[in-house]
Design goal:
By secondary structure, this protein is α+β, with helices and mostly antiparallel strands. It has 21 helices and 23 strands.
């Protein structure tokens, strides 16, 4: 596939109108394959023979809900056999796997899609051939009766993300010329695969094949299959992950009929075609592709559609068995609290305990998909270092969790519980599907804690270490100015003079003490309670406890750069800046000492920030 490089333009207008590389590639496919004239429009259903052979559309939907479109992507055409995987998935969810699998096989037949032949058990070979698809429609009819077709139409609409209509002319044409499908239907009835009235079941089948879609629709439908049943555009969980995995399995082996082996060997993407000219391809965890071009090859597949799929797979090396995910990339950072403590500023006693026992808290930041092999690698990395008392798994960069990965992770938690190790999960909400999946396998475990913010998780773990080694964290104990790090080194007389300038202020929980952008007119020394310092966008910079200063940047900046709020009821010494400047003039030695202490505090913060940055950029 030859693709011309984009023209070199650098102006703002060119940047705004520039196309992503993938869209350029799809455009190039459209240009290259549009002149292809081989094949023939299906005419065994007379109404299909009226399709314009020049129509050609390509659409690709990503799993974040973006949809690329090139050419005739809004031209409606009938879904035909591309309905089969979706109705099979619907049947699995509606009637249960046991019922469906008791009457429909999953083996490739090697025969054309409309073959009047059953397997050795007198069941359809698979749900992708007409016999299996009619059996699926029969199962839905068995469950829903006269409402069966509407049930199917609404379900296909959820896959597409919009309401889908029916082409009544094509339906009538299919029904009039559908004797071969009637023969299949009666064969299924004879072998008790279909229990209901054959004519009623075939009416459902003919109508589902006549549902109108576009290339864009089938790209979104394919992406829903690739996204474990979640429509990436609407966010709706359309069907279960179990039904999706079984559907993709059958699409892989049988979706392209007697061309299926060649297809999976050369292209390697689960796909389904329809005689209306559509092809949809679903690459799990990657994308959904939909194409429309009415001319078909001898296998009943769109000629241009096949070429698009071949080009996409070859150009980007998308064969599903050619995956290069490396489990070693699943850990983005692995450290203890000695390298990266929480943003809470600790008192000297707490600092001493944490410095002596920093290895008791291990933090492992994970990224990407937590698959079976990735979780196995993480568990071995955890065991390779000395055993901690608490381990934090940060999942905020985890984009997906497979069921195998979740189960292995839950088993790791049970192993850690046996060693009395507390597990803390951050970056995952209890309302998320991943948490619910983990909860199924961790029921009864008492060693698991959850904090959405990593810093909150680290702070809680630090508290546990302090408690275990005899430290005390008393948020309500009042401290004196002599205990303030910023005032270290001042004499008793200097501290007394400074105290005479201070007023004790009280604050309620959540009360804003300092607002970003306000004039900096006071210094504060926290006397009791806890406050947190945040940027205007809500990002927390620090948590301060009694004995810590805040608003001290007033000594360097005329305006406040951050908000300070009380975490709980708090008291603080407030000293107006003008009074503090007068104190510095009266006590130059004390003023110099305070500025040196401030410089040390800023240096410590910079060292901590650099350490956190190094953790993410090392290795």
């Amino acid at each position: 596939m030859k693709q011309s490089p984009p023209p070199v333009t650098t102006g703002p207008a060119a940047w705004i109108s520039s196309k992503p590389p993938l869209l350029r590639f799809l455009n190039a496919c459209h240009v290259e394959f549009a002149p292809e004239t081989s094949g023939a429009v299906a005419d065994y259903i007379p109404e299909l023979g009226k399709a314009d052979p020049d129509h050609f559309g390509i659409s690709l939907a990503t799993l974040d809900g973006h949809v690329y479109e090139v050419g005739d992507t809004q031209i409606p055409f009938t879904i035909q056999s591309m309905s089969k995987p979706f109705v099979f998935a619907l049947a699995l969810d509606t009637l249960g796997a046991a019922r469906v699998e008791s009457v429909i096989g999953v083996e490739p037949s090697g025969d054309p899609f409309n073959s009047i032949r059953l397997n050795a058990e007198n069941h359809p070979f698979n749900p992708m051939v007409n016999a299996g698809a009619i059996a699926c429609s029969g199962l839905i009819h068995e469950a829903k009766g006269d409402a069966a077709f509407e049930y199917i139409r609404q379900a296909l609409g959820r896959f597409a993300g919009r309401e889908l209509d029916v082409d009544d002319a094509v339906y009538a044409s299919e029904s009039t010329t559908g004797d071969r499908n009637r023969a299949i239907g009666y064969l299924l009835r004879t072998n008790a695969v279909i229990r209901d009235n054959v004519a009623a079941v075939l009416e459902v089948y003919f109508r589902q094949c006549a549902i109108l879609v576009t290339a864009r629709d089938i790209a979104v439908m394919a992406a829903t299959l690739a996204n474990r049943g979640i429509n990436p555009v609407t966010g709706e969980q359309v069907t279960s992950a179990y039904a999706i995995s079984r559907t993709l399995s059958v699409m892989t082996s049988s979706g392209m009929y007697d061309y299926a082996g060649e297809w999976i060997y050369r292209i390697g993407i689960p796909a389904k075609s329809g005689v209306g000219g559509g092809i949809l391809a679903a690459l799990p965890a990657r994308l959904g592709l939909g194409s429309y071009s009415p001319k078909l090859d001898k296998h009943g597949n769109s000629v241009r559609g096949i070429k698009v799929c071949e080009a996409l797979s070859a150009h980007y090396d998308l064969h599903m068995l050619n995956r290069s995910d490396d489990a070693r990339n699943s850990i983005i950072a692995d450290y203890d609290i000695g390298n990266s403590p929480s943003r809470r500023v600790r008192r000297a006693q707490e600092q001493s305990i944490l410095a002596a026992h920093h290895q008791d808290v291990r933090i492992i930041e994970l990224v990407g998909t937590l698959s079976f092999s990735n979780v196995d690698y993480v568990s071995r990395q955890l065991a390779a270092k000395p055993r901690p008392q608490l381990v934090i798994f940060d999942l905020r960069r985890v984009t997906a969790m497979t069921r195998a990965g979740a189960r292995l992770l839950a088993e790791e938690f049970r192993e850690l519980a046996a060693y009395h190790i507390t597990v803390i999960l951050s970056g995952i909400r209890r309302s998320s599907p991943d948490w619910k999946m983990l909860a199924d396998w961790t029921e009864g475990l008492t060693n698991i804690r959850n904090y959405y913010l990593l810093d909150a998780a680290i702070e809680w773990a630090e508290d546990q270490v302090v408690y275990r080694y005899g430290g005390a964290i008393d948020f309500f104990e009042a401290t004196e100015l002599s205990e303030q790090a910023l005032l270290s080194g001042l004499t008793v007389e200097e501290l007394a003079d400074l105290a005479s300038l201070a007023a004790i202020k009280s604050y309620q929980a959540s009360e804003k003490i300092i607002a970003a952008g306000d004039a900096a007119t006071s210094l504060f020394f926290l006397r009791s309670g806890v406050v947190h310092v945040t940027l205007p966008d809500g990002i927390r910079l620090a948590t301060l406890t009694a004995g810590m200063p805040f608003g001290e940047m007033a000594l360097l900046e005329p305006r406040r750069s951050a908000d300070v709020l009380a975490d709980m009821a708090a008291t603080a010494y407030e000293i107006p800046l003008r009074d503090f400047e007068r104190f510095r003039k009266q006590h130059p030695r004390a003023g110099e000492r305070i500025m040196r202490n401030l410089a040390q505090l800023l240096a410590d913060r910079l060292i901590l920030a650099n350490a956190k940055l190094n953790l993410l950029t090392s290795g």
